[in-house]
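Troubleshooting: if your tokenizer reports a length mismatch, compare your output against this known-good record of 334 residues.
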Amino acid sequence: METYDLIIIGAGPAGISAGIYAARQRLSILIISKDIGGQVAKKAVDIENYPGFTKISGPDLVDIYKKQAKENNLEILQGEVEKIEKSGEDFLIHLKNGKEYQATSVIVATGAESRKINIPGEEEFAGKGVSYCSLCDGPVFKDKVVAVIGGGNNGFESALFLSNYVKQIYILEYSDTVKADLENQELVGSYKNIEVIKNAKVARIEGDKFVKSITYEDVSNEAASAKASAFDKSSAGQAGEPREKTLDVQGVFVEIGYVPSTSFVNDLVELNENKEIVFDPKTLETKTPGLFSAGDCNVSKYKQIVMASGQGASSALSAYEYIKKENHKRNKHE
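Known-good structure output:
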């Protein structure tokens, strides 16, 4: 079995940064990941808040990650981890393809996956009009009408990117306010082919071979009724029931946030209610000594590329200190 000082799971901003810093400490390293770049590779608009670049696209930043990985002789293995377990003093990494690797220390930097909305038609039409990546699939919908589910920054940025291709975009937001930054709200407001629909509870996606429509409930009456009942109990329930409305669309882009990719490491870490990994803020170490976490898979409040990169660097330096102590302890007992 191949054994390394450090195995890093994930090759997004956190994983690549961890790899670069660990390589400078002359550690033997293996990075295991489904892809390189993570969510950065799917970024629909230019990144304008990353130090060193006034503006850079997600794919261009990923190209730099690949170049830096090569320059630092990082070994990157394409694969998915099924489980991590302790094996004596080391960690044993089980891949879904049956292969196993061993390491003194592990950094989990798996980020997060697109959250599904779980409505009828979503799974049925996945890849047939339902998408979770506007950058990947946007050009396919040239001159068509699409819906974007989600009124946060992801939804608004997705709509801005799609506006270059599609004829009309509907942004559907469940609440009566959107969560996107003011800058994104102002940009979206300047586009004639983008319409924001609030109080829209998405009900189902329909079609035959491909998506043909999306239906939502107008829940503005529910909000009005709740507000009225707070002042006058007799008015409760007098407002009309939620009304269903259908939009004829050929595409649906789901942009309602992300779910941490942490299921494979449940037994060795503490997870919060959102399935994010809890860690020591000083070292990024989890409850299991030698197991560290970096990036969007952990409890960090702000999910930003620059912060994931910083955590990657910090976790690598903490892992180096742990490995150094472990090697000293093991050599002492030999």
